[in-house]
Structures are given as structure tokens and as C-alpha cells.
Design brief:
The chain has 292 residues and is α+β, with helices and mostly antiparallel strands. The protein is built from eight helices and nine strands. A nine-stranded mixed beta sheet has the order 3-2-1-4-5-9-8-7-6, sandwiched between helices. It starts with a helix and ends with a helix.
Length: 292
């Protein structure tokens, strides 16, 4: 069923990404199906590839019961075309095999760096104080969700900072993200820093790409809040994955609708054709599922 969903997504993906006219960003992240509990007491995890440009889930891969995202991500990458695209992921994907696969398939990456790679993480932190960023960029202050936030990005060339470059397939760019937040109602100030590594050159604009990755987390929130995924109980891992697939199809249909909708002046003229196009594609998907 997940493979049929991927075929459904492919129908619209190229058309919508061409319309966006910017490089495609593919966000990769895992989500626990909390409505189902396996024999080992854990909820099954499903790793997905999500197109930031279109709002469509491109493909998914379920983690095996005694495995985790590290094993599932390479399988997921083999399912999709990432050549000329940017893959973003959290720290779990900062693995030699995953980075190597992205490079070999012709893609670029931007991955968060945490303590699961201690020598790389702490080595970079120690050396950053001795280097000047190639450039820095500040956003804000910006008021949103009752908070006043200022975001600063500092971009470094990793040539003299990363010691074991061969392990990671070559030189990498380092992005230091710093967020300073003031809660409007109380005046309480908080701050945080994050590190990211990327295969892209230092001159490539990255600040927005850092924030673009969070779109997949927003999509996961939508599955839970709007479609109540975590509140729906399933007895088996297979049933949980099928539910996840159906809900992602529903979520993607809304994104396709928004992506294909024309300007207000052309809206009435093209609406009937748009409805027909989506309806035919969804019917085709249902036929695929019934054949399975």
C-alpha cells in the first residue's frame, strides 16, 4: 500500500516542483505510531521522505521491530530520486553510510549534529571559537505565537575545523544556529544553539533550509492533531502502517489541491478541471489498492 501511495505522489510531484522554480528540499524524519504497542513495549516507527516544496509525502519505510531509523533511512533513500536535491534530516541520520549514500546518489544534505557523533560534535565546538564565520545572518526580532524571537546563523568552512573529513566523504560546511526568545507575557528570556553540517558550499544560502526541515514535524503534528493518528488504536504493526499510509494520502490530497489551485482570477475557470484531475488520480490510486 505504501508503494501505491508513492506512485500516487509521483503523479503530481514533478508538476508541482516545476511550478515552485526552486531547488527541491526533501525532509526525512521518523514518527512513532503511538496508538500501537509492539511485543517489546515500543511503538512502531515509520520513516518518511517529505517534499517541503509540495507538502506531499513521497515515500515511507517502516523500521523493523528490533531496529531503528538508522537502518531504515538508507532503504528509504533507495526508493526516491535525490539527484540535484537537498536532503535534510535530524541527528539520527548523521551516519557514515547515510551521508555516503546521499553523496553517491547526487544529492546534497543538511543534517543536525548532536552528541550521537561525539568526536565530530565536540571537535567542531572546540575549534569554532578559533575561527571566524564566512558569513553570518540574522532574522528578527519577530513576533509569533506570543514570543519575540531573533535567529542568528553563522556559516563556517569546515576545511580546517573537521578533523576526519575522509570519513564523511570530503569537506563540509558548518552552520551554527542560535535562537534568542523572549516570552511576551512574562518577559522570560531563553536561548538555544544548534549545529548543522552540510555538503553544500559556504556561499549557498542555508538559513531558510534549516527552518524548512521543521515542515516535516509540522506535517507529523497535523497527522496527530487533525487526523488523530496517535489516538487511533491498532492491534498490529501492519494495521498501524496501513492507517499511516491512508492518512498521508489524505494529507497529500489537501497539499495537491493547494498546489494546483490557480490565482483568484482564474479560479472559477480552472476549478472543474482541477477537481476532475484530482478525482481521476485518486480513483486510480484506489484501484491500485484494491488490486493489492
Amino acid at each position: 500500500m505504501a508503494d501505491r501511495m508513492q506512485q500516487f505522489a509521483d503523479i503530481f510531484l514533478e508538476r508541482l516542483t516545476c511550478a515552485s522554480r526552486i531547488i527541491e528540499i526533501i525532509c526525512i524524519d521518523g514518527k512513532a505510531e503511538r496508538g500501537t504497542v509492539q511485543e517489546n513495549g515500543r511503538s512502531p516507527d515509520i520513516v518518511s521522505a517529505y517534499s517541503f516544496n509540495t507538502g506531499i509525502t513521497i515515500a515511507t519505510e517502516a523500521c523493523k521491530e528490533k531496529s531503528n531509523e538508522i537502518k531504515a533511512v538508507p532503504i528509504l533513500l533507495d526508493k526516491i530520486d535525490i539527484s540535484g536535491k537537498i536532503v535534510t534530516a535530524d541527528a539520527m541520520s548523521m551516519q557514515k553510510d547515510i551521508v555516503e549514500k546521499i553523496r553517491k546518489k547526487g544529492g546534497d544534505f543538511l543534517i543536525e549534529l548532536k552528541a550521537n557523533q561525539p568526536s565530530l560534535r565536540y571537535g567542531i565546538e572546540d575549534r569554532l571559537v578559533e575561527h571566524t564565520p564566512v558569513y553570518s545572518y540574522t532574522e528578527g526580532p519577530e513576533l509569533a505565537h506570543g514570543r519575540i524571537e531573533t535567529r542568528t546563523y553563522r556559516v563556517y568552512d569546515g576545511l580546517d575545523i573537521i578533523a576526519d573529513k575522509k570519513k564523511w566523504g570530503g569537506n563540509m560546511t558548518i552552520i551554527e544556529y542560535e535562537s534568542s526568545t523572549v516570552k511576551k507575557s512574562t518577559g522570560v528570556h531563553t536561548s538555544e544553539k544548534r549545529l548543522y553540517v552540510s555538503s553544500m558550499p559556504t556561499h549557498t544560502p542555508k538559513p531558510t533550509i534549516v527552518r524548512n526541515h521543521w515542515s516535516i514535524e509540522s506535517m507529523h503534528w497535523g497527522l496527530d492533531y487533525n487526523l488523530q493518528q496517535d489516538n487511533i488504536k491498532r492491534k498490529s504493526t501492519r494495521a498501524a502502517r496501513n492507517l499511516d499510509t491512508i492518512q498521508r494520502i489524505v494529507y497529500s490530497v489537501f497539499s495537491i489541491w493547494k498546489g494546483l489551485r490557480k490565482k483568484q482570477s482564474d479560479k472559477n475557470k480552472g476549478m472543474a478541471e482541477l477537481i476532475r484531475h484530482i478525482s481521476m488520480s485518486f480513483t486510480r490510486l484506489m484501484r491500485f489498492l484494491s488490486q493489492k
